[in-house]
Write a sequence for this structure.
């Protein structure tokens, strides 16, 4: 390569020549020959440097909290339930004491591995083990740590001491540098939540079988981040109405079902995860569970049972897990906003019950909306009496479940003079003024002779107060039936709600008041007369009416 008239290669010194030149320069350069020129030199003032260092220190303190960095894994020497001492691995952590917020102190702590640590006070059952200084000492306390103590001490683990040995050991560690992710852990444990108490309330839409829902938000950690850096965890939705542009899909455990719909499919349910028409009378009731997702989808899941009336269906909500009827993926972010209880033959949801869940998506504490419920147009000043107020507000009473038992796979063989008692259920104590209903259902196949049957007894202090044996006879139906027994309000007599409801062969109830202190039972007996092997599933629910 040439540069002008010269070969450029001849202009570049060799590495050896460069090295020799630098060594020669260093040998001939004395310290006195070096002069520092300070013109235009930038020097940081001492005060500014101190302020900068303090700002860095403050930022570090603000970013820190008390907690463990590594190690501190504990175990019981000899094993839980056997040993009396503990071992702990070496570890380190940090303590931030900001009792004086204007002058917080930070202490790095560490400890060496230890074994054979004995519980100092074995007269109490629980001991918390912690570090609060740099002395390499593991300390103990027998009182539950307060919130302030957790901010100034590094708790490692807790032990329980029972019958002379350590009976339990649990970690109490709070790892540092994980505050944001710890909050996410909590958010995922709680699941998707309703952002406000009245958000996303379901109701009848603008058409006969349409679904409406108020606007509102769902809380799910990070779900709104793409739309708002300042509000990353709550997705907000506009009001929904399938009479307009709102659409939903039904879903079964196998997955969502196409196509998008605008009408509630009141005539269907999904026994064993397969969609089917509700059989029999069109007055039977199905449940439809409404799910909403942070991504905006609305899905409805069929119930897998049908019911004799709306009251029965609403009561059943307390014992149903909607996620068990839905695709498994719904558990990731789905939120149950409520349920619809509607008769199979209805052509207008005005007669349906809309039940809103609480903020956690549970039906405990949910709100029932129905025809005659509280409306904006109510004259709330017209409360001359409780009865008038209830009438104005469309409030006709509420039910509190006080006992619920399910009896499955009941099987018996009876013949000759031997009856077989398959259920002996002790009722809770009745209170003054209670109205109590007992609802019983039987499902499943099986046959018995015409003279056989299923016998219901009400027992008070060992004395039969009521005998019924015509609940079922001959061929057992698979639909299930409902029967009621009522305890009178004023005198606590056992009152039968009509022979046609309980069976034409019901004996008269025992006269005289039922002592509230007495032991009262419900018994279910397989009748002895030519009864063949029979399988039943029975549910007994006792609920209490309140004004």
């Amino acid at each position: 390569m040439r540069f002008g008239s010269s070969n450029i290669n001849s202009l570049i010194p060799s590495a050896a020549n460069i090295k020799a030149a630098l060594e020669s320069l260093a040998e001939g350069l004395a310290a006195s020959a070096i002069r520092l020129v300070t013109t235009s030199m930038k020097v940081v003032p001492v005060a500014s440097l101190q302020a900068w260092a303090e700002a860095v220190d403050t930022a570090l303190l603000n970013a820190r909290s008390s907690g463990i960095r590594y190690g501190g894994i504990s175990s019981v020497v000899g094993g839980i339930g056997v040993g009396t001492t503990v071992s702990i691995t070496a570890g380190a952590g940090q303590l931030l004491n900001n009792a004086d917020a204007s002058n917080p102190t930070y202490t790095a702590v560490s400890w060496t591995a230890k074994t054979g640590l004995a519980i100092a006070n074995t007269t109490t059952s629980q001991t918390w083990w912690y570090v609060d200084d740099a002395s390499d000492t593991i300390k103990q306390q027998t009182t539950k740590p307060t919130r302030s103590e957790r901010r100034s001490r590094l708790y490692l683990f807790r032990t329980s001491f029972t019958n002379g040995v350590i009976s339990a050991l649990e970690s109490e560690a709070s790892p540092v540098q994980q505050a944001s992710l710890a909050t996410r852990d909590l958010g995922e444990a709680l699941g998707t939540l309703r952002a406000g108490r009245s958000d996303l309330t379901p109701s009848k839409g603008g058409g006969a079988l349409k679904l409406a829902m108020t606007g509102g938000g769902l809380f799910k950690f990070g779900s709104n981040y793409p739309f708002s850096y300042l509000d990353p965890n709550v997705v907000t939705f506009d009001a929904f109405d399938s009479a307009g542009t709102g659409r939903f899909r039904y879903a079964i455990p196998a997955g969502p079902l196409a196509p998008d719909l605008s009408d509630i499919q009141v005539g269907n349910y999904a026994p064993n995860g397969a969609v089917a028409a509700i059989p029999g009378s069109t007055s039977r009731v199905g449940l439809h569970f409404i799910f909403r997702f942070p991504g905006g989808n609305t899905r409805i899941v069929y119930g897998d049972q049908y019911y004799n009336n709306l009251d029965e269906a609403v009561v059943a909500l307390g014992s149903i897990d909607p996620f068990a009827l839905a695709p498994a993926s719904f558990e990731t972010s789905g939120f149950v906003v409520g349920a619809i209880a509607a008769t199979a033959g209805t052509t207008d949801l005005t007669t349906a019950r809309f039940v809103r869940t609480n903020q956690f998506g549970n039906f405990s504490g949910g709100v029932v909306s129905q025809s005659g419920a509280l409306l904006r147009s109510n004259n709330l000043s017209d409360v001359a009496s409780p009865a008038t107020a209830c009438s104005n507000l469309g409030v006709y009473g509420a039910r509190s479940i006080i006992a619920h038992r399910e009896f499955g796979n009941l099987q018996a063989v009876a013949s000759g003079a031997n009856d077989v008692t398959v259920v002996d259920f002790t009722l809770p104590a009745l209170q003054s003024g209670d109205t109590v209903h007992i609802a019983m259902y039987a499902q499943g196949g099986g046959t018995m002779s015409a003279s056989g049957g299923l016998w219901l007894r009400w027992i008070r202090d060992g004395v039969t107060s009521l005998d019924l044996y015509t609940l079922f006879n001959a061929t057992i139906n698979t639909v299930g039936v409902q029967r009621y027994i009522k305890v009178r309000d004023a005198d606590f007599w056992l009152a039968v709600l009509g022979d046609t409801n309980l069976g034409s062969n019901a004996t008269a109830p025992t006269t005289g008041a039922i002592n509230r202190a007495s032991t009262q039972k419900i018994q279910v007996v397989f009748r002895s007369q030519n009864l063949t092997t029979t399988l039943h599933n029975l549910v007994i629910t006792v609920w209490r009416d309140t004004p």
User: Anything to note?
Assistant: The two ends are 105 Å apart (CA to CA). Residues 193-369 form one domain. The helical segments are 15-28, 46-63, 147-152, 179-190, 310-316, 330-333, 386-393, 499-502. The chain has a mean pLDDT of 76.
